[in-house]
Amino acid sequence: MSDKTQQGVSNAPLSIEKDSQINVVVNRSGDLDGSVDLMRVFHTMKVKGRVYAWVVILCMVVGVCAPLLMYQLRNDNTRVASVVTFDYDVLDTTNPLITPTPKPVKDLTAPDGTELDVSQITSSYVLQDALRGVTLSEDISIAALRKNISIERMLTEDSRRQQEIAKQMLADKNSAAYAQLQSIKLTYVNQIIVSLSNGFSEEDDRENNKKIYLPDDELRLLLDRILISYNNYLAMTYADLMLPGDEISVIDVDHLDIMESVDLLRQALTNLYDYCDSKSDEIKAYRSYRDGRSLTDLMETLQTARDVNVEYLYSDITASSVAKDREAMIAKYRFQMREVQTKLDVVNEQIAQTAETLKNYKHDQIYVEQQDGEGSKTTKITTEYYNKLILEQAANYENATALEITIDDLKAKIESLQSETAAVDTEKAKVELAAAIRICHEVYIQICDQMEEIYNSSFYTTYANRSAAQGKAPSFLAANMKKMIIFAVLGAFLACGLWFVSAFAAEMKRGGKADANGKTGDGGDASDTSVSDESGKEAEV
Fold first, then answer.
1. What is the spatial distance between Cα 55 and Cα 45, in angstroms, rounded to a whole number?
2. Read out DSSP for 404-429?
3. How far apart are CA 379 and CA 372, in angstroms?
4. Residues 144 and 28 grouped into a single domain
5. What φ, ψ does residue 250 adopt, rounded to 5°?
6. Does residue 407 contact residue 344 with C-beta atoms inside 8 Å?
């Protein structure tokens, strides 16, 4: 058909007389392809609201139960840790002219002044003592336990700042950083952090990746036991836990001479008293739970026994020259006097040399110029070598005085044995000496019992104060509360998302069906409005 004919058909008015048909289509689907009616989506969600309310509750319950189930089934490495603070006194030896005095430790210095070896926490002695008497759900070897222990030392604020500056300089590739790193001396505070990880593997099980896991309470108990054992190690290593030596019961009055036995008894009592006197005031003031006596009371008893029973007997025996064999005793005392005289000669020679050095020492004081702002100042400082000479000379004079007293005492004994005295009852003196030995030995036993009680008290069990082993929360719900809340919220969001998606999918499905109906012409879904006459010609309206 030509363009003219088409134009004529389309522009010609409809004839009422002719039999014609008009098809009208509203909302043509081709023009609305891909559109979504949200009102219908929300209506669908409202219709399905009761069903999906239960779905939301179910998802939230699953979200709450999931962390609890994971908590029971997982095998991750739980870790517990404790902060250990060392609490003891060290001697202040910074000034050699002042007698060293105890002061609280502020770094990782041992009580004897050396560097504290914190790696002993993983030693076999400490770990064996920690495992002794502890019943665990699984058998853990010392090697497996040692691999799961980590020790972290804590730097002081100054050292930490210096380390950060040096690392920054290294990051900036500063050449002076290497020299600064060599000069940095790191210092640590008197605290360490000891951690114990769960999941213990033996050497034979490494290939199979088989690990042993302990419950949280057993893991914390094991770390506490390790720190208690390490504290006992510190007490055994650095504390003076030695009981006084028994120098009294070894005196044999049957085979030794009476004067020799009395000399040994006097020396034994002196050593025992010095042992007690060297203890701190806190140790001396400790009162026993058995009889309420303190070490100070026992020292007074010891002093009384020495004055009443020993010194009086010594004076009587020396004045009376009581001896079974005087010639043998004189020879023994002379030999002892020669030994003491030799020591005195050596000490006198040291005194002369030190005095000569001090006399000719011209640099006992030095002048140090220090910068003070724009100007400078000069400070006079006594050298350490001069101070050392003074201390050595004082010790030499003290030794010389003690040796001279010993020589005078030996001379008096020799003169007493060489003098003519009346006959003395040796057996009576022997009985009195045995009684004095028995009384002094009873005091010695009491002192030993007192010291054993003190060693088992808190005085020697507080070298390391520690916090309780901290790790996973002991409460089952408290340990998972945060995860339970997060999973519950995620479950609610998931259920709401499913709710919306289901309604949206229903709307998309309805739109697809409408589109299919428009393409087939069913139900009057044609979108064109046209007029056709009986000759088959159509006119567009």
1. 13
2. HHHHHHHHHHHHHHHS------HHHH
3. 12
4. no
5. -80, -5
6. yes
Question: Does a structural domain hold residue 469?
Answer: no
Domain that holds residue 180: 79-238
**Residue 14 counted as domain residue:** no
510-520 exposure pattern, b = at least 16 Cβ within 10 A, e = fewer? ebeeeeeebee
Cα 69 to Cα 64, 72, 74, 484: the distances in Å are 9, 5, 8, 11
pLDDT by residue for the chain (541 residues), tens digit each? 444 444 444 555 555 555 555 555 554 544 445 566 777 777 777 777 777 788 888 888 888 887 777 766 665 557 888 889 888 888 766 665 566 667 788 888 888 778 888 999 999 999 999 998 888 888 888 988 999 999 999 888 877 777 777 666 666 665 665 666 666 677 888 889 999 988 888 765 555 667 888 888 888 899 999 999 998 888 888 877 788 888 898 888 777 778 888 888 989 999 999 999 988 888 899 999 888 899 999 999 999 999 888 888 887 777 776 776 777 778 888 888 888 899 999 999 999 988 888 777 665 555 555 555 555 555 555 566 777 788 888 889 998 998 898 888 888 878 877 776 655 567 777 888 888 899 999 999 999 999 989 888 877 777 777 776 766 544 556 667 777 788 888 888 887 888 778 777 777 777 666 555 555 444 444 444 444 444 444 433 3
Task: Give the end-to-end CA distance of the chain in Å, rounded to a whole number.
Answer: 20
Shared domain for 92 and 128, answered yes or no, is: yes
Domain CATH for 373: 1.10.287.370
CB 103 within 8 Å of CB 90: yes
Inside any domain, residue 116: yes
Determine if the pTM surpasses 0.85: no
- What the block records as the tokens of 322 is 């009581």
List 372's β-bridge partners, or say none: 375
Residues 126 and 224 in one domain: yes
* C-beta neighbour count of 173 within 10 angstroms: 7
Q: What is the DSSP string of 463-480?
A: SEEEPPPB-S-SSHHHHH
- The answer to whether residues 265 and 401 belong to one domain is yes
How far is residue 78's CA from residue 213's CA, in Å, rounded to a whole number? 9
- Report the distance separating Cα 215 and Cα 131, nearest Å: 16
C-alpha span between 209 and 202 (Å, rounded): 9
Q: Is the same domain home to 270 and 160?
A: no
d(CA 346, CA 352): 10
Total of domains in the chain: 3
Please indicate, yes or no, whether residues 219 and 111 belong to a single structural domain of this protein.
yes
Query: Does 200 lie in the same domain as 135?
Result: yes
**3 state DSSP class of 267:** helix
Say which amino acid occupies 415. Answer: E
Extract the tokens encoding 142. 């010392």
Enter the tokens of residue 196: 């114990």
